[in-house]
Amino acid sequence: MIVLVGGMVVVGGLLAGVGYGLTHRSQPGTTTYLALLVVLAVLAALVLAPHLTLMNEERVLELLLAGWMFASALWALFAFTYTGRGPAITRVRSAGLVALAAVTTSALLILNTVGTSNELLALALAPLLIAVLSLAVFGVFLVARAGLIDDDLPTSQSVLLTGAGTGVILLFLTSNLDVVVGPGPAGTVTLITLATTTGLFLTAQVGYDLLQTEPSAGYLAREVILDEMSDCVLLVDRQSRLLDANRAADETFQLTRSNAVGQTLGNVFGRSLEADDSLRTLETRNGRREFEISQSPLTNSAGEPVGQIIVLRDVTDRRTHEQRLAVLNRVLRHNLRNDLDAIRSFAEAIETAPASPETSEFGGRIEQTATELFELGEMVARAERLLARKSLEPEPIELPELVETLLTRQSAQNADCSVSLTTPRPLVVYTDKTLLKTAVEEVIRNACEHNDHESPAVEVAINRTPEGALVTIKDNGPGIPKQERTVLLAGEETPLRHGSGIGLWVVYWAVTRIGGTVSFSENTPRGSIVTIEVPHRRS
């Protein structure tokens, strides 16, 4: 009688829990949790069957073992979904786990029906039973960790759920006790286990708002925040071997985790990444970019260092913006002021001096200076339009064809300047056409227009590289002043060191924006050599 009453109380409590839980169906894991309570209620009802002369005890224990498989599968699904840990649960995986329980149950019932010996039955079902049992144990571990280690669950709730999950696992043992204590006592022990498990579940559900708590939110937020960061984050051990990387690092450096994990940073990046006051120029999927590096120690629960977290922040665009402000500030304060002073001086001379050849010359100088100011303003506006674009537009470009068009146009504008092109054909690069065209065109224009040689000549050579192409532009003019080159190589202007114009800055900014580099050297016997590296900018 006690077993009968106790069983009915357990069944009633579980069904009441199902009814109460239907009001929270939108919460993660609720559907699986309610299905688990229904299965447990069915198991409790099975224990009562022999007392109601509906079924013999041996058959009940057999069905209890089959029901335990479904309960364990549902418990594992609930733990994975509720905590946000473990494998990502999709409909396909949920169906697969339930199918595993169904296949195992079917195999058990079929083999028992045909009368197979216990040894053969154990051998046939062992792999499936171990799989189901392992998933259930893993679910208990995840729930315990969510509360006791990660603090995503209140400790009391974590303890209750850990105990309830353990109770689900113990049903496997109690349903097999018949070989030791007999079917009757085994059923009683099973009912006690069910009652304890039910009490723990209902206490967590009603007393601690089980279905109103979302521990997965904190855990998933930490995962999402790391992957949503625009900065590249690397996790390394004490020997600087890569352990993990966020999505931004994977995409920026095209890391293949299966190959990169376990490798030292020196092997992965071709150089060390110790943090200091300087910047690091690193190869990325979009060419060379500049990064600021910061490092934080990673410690275990005992406070012992186990590795480092390295954050790489791409500052290429920020640096370019700062350079643009510095250059434009110099243009306004220095070049513009000097040219306006010159115009004022010429105008005053014309105003006070009698008509003469000198006054006519002053007028010509005024016109020339004003024209140069106009061209400077146009160049500034052009640079702003060019570099203010928020995103690039990579496309396949037949590089020899583009350069040949620019040379033909420049030759028409400067007929006394001879131009030549040496290049393999075809040679296609994938990059932003507007930026590339601007950079190459500006270098060619400077080489022709500022060439003081009696026979001005510009030679362009294009060479293929594994990363893209090199465009080398040689002239026989006066060469680029050392001060101009120094300013560009340093990447900044100072009150004591600045360039005279912005043409080369536009080249530098455009090439940097597409992920390439620009370098300068002296030609022999005179002139300059400008080399532009054009990388493939992958989509």
Can you tag this structure with a few keywords?
five-stranded mixed sheet; 539 residues; 59% helix; Rhopdopsin 7-helix transmembrane proteins
Description:
With 539 residues, the protein is an alpha+beta fold. It folds into 4 domains: 2-218, Rhopdopsin 7-helix transmembrane proteins (Up-down Bundle); 229-314, PAS domain (Beta-Lactamase, 2-Layer Sandwich); 317-388; 392-539, Histidine kinase-like ATPase, C-terminal domain (Heat Shock Protein 90). The protein has helices at residues 2-21, 30-48, 57-83, 91-113, 118-148, 155-174, 178-181, 183-207, 215-228, 247-253, 257-260, 265-269, 316-352, 357-387, 399-413, 433-449, 482-490, 503-513; strands at residues 232-237, 242-245, 280-284, 287-299, 305-314, 394-398, 418-422, 428-432, 457-465, 468-475, 517-522, 528-535. The strands form 3 sheets. A 5-stranded antiparallel β-sheet has the order 2-1-5-4-3. It has a 5-stranded mixed β-sheet with strand order 7-9-10-12-11. A hairpin with a 2-residue loop joins strand 3 (280-284) and strand 4 (287-299). The longest helix is centred in the middle third of the chain and has 37 residues, at 316-352. The chain is elongated. Residues 178-182 and 493-499 have low confidence and may be disordered.
